[in-house]
Amino acid sequence: MTPRESEFIELLHKEVKPALGCTEPIAVALAAAKATEILKTEVPALSEYELDVDVSGNILKNGMGVGIPGTGMVGLYIASALGAVCGRSEYDLEVLKDLTDKDVEAAKGLVDEGNVRIKVAASPKMLYVKVAVTSAGHKAWAVIEDDHDRIVETGFDATVSDFRKGSDGETTPVKCTLDYNLTVKEIYSFAQSAAFEDIKFILADRDLNLALAREGLDGDYGLNVGKAIRENQQEVFGDDFISFAMGMTAAASDARMAGCKLPAMSNSGSGNQGITVSMPVIAYALKYDVDDERLARALILSNLVAIHIKGYLGKLSALCGCVIASTGSACGIVFLRGGNYEQVCSAIKNMIGNITGMVCDGAKVGCAMKVASGVACAVQSCVMALRGTCIKETDGIIDRDIEKTIRNLGRIGSLGMQSTDHLIQQIMLCKE
Questions:
Q1: Contacts of 216 (CB under 8 A, 6+ apart)
Q2: Would the N or C end of the chain have less CB density within 10 A of its end CB?
Q3: Domain boundary pick from 162, 190, 219
Q4: Residues 151 and 284 in one domain
């Protein structure tokens, strides 16, 4: 394995990982778990916990209406309480996987007694969580920034540990996606040429997200978008690949957003993005009997393209993440259908020229409808790309150069939509 290939593998392990529940409330649960663990270590006898939770507007936006696995409840209050009651920080984004019915009742008690307080933080960070847990006259806290599982600060009473600083006291920068200097051309080459033994770990995508899709089709979750598509394939949608892919992907999102107790394989800190970037590719492999090696290469391509584009937007933004994730899956499908590098670029441009304007108005069961729309666009963009059709550089934000096109999307989604993001948050918080 070359040093550059090692960097790609490192990035994939960093950005593609299991997550149980929507990652915004899970980030809050993780901070609460870490703070409580510190408190338990320092204080022999604890009384009932009180939690003060400060979160950025985007964490609040994405945590208000989403189901918390195993609880039948939604939102940050129960997620915070569960993190304190039964969370284990060593589980990372699966922090709540050991919860029991008894834990849920204890956490509900904390919420019902008003012991969990949540407010919007003053931090300029798009992704910011601070949870302070108080008990027996002592306080411990944990702070998460930039990544859903990146704990940058902990404290107990007057003692503070700041992990943003190196041993020399200088600020230690976060190694972000852009540090890897990705290009679509290099990603495509890596997906084609990497040794199968080095990349076959990505098949865990299929194992986790396919299990979620099947659970969504078998159970009763959220809006049952996937099930509705599946049940109406013959009369409405047609018994073809596009409806199969839409139904499978939406079903996985249905289950996850409604609080299913199965983990998703996430991408760039989002379970829904992980589902959307992989399930259409997996659906193609199922329908057309693609072997494991070919599927792994397609999943490497789809995941890395999504990670690459997401690097210009940040982990949370006003632009819906399924736009980015479905762009990745479009590339994966092009690959499975024998497409070349130029056709992969065409698929990306077709996607960017199509659904760039889809906004994120918070994580919720309705996200499954956006996921289904993204999948439909991905298949359409793939078909157009394979027949040599691509949105031209004379149109909108599309540029002749694929990397400039991606950067244009990033500017729209980060700088251009900041006011949109604030307005969405205001609308959500001011509902009667």
A1: 224, 226, 227, 250, 251, 252, 253, 254, 255, 256, 260
A2: C
A3: 162
A4: no
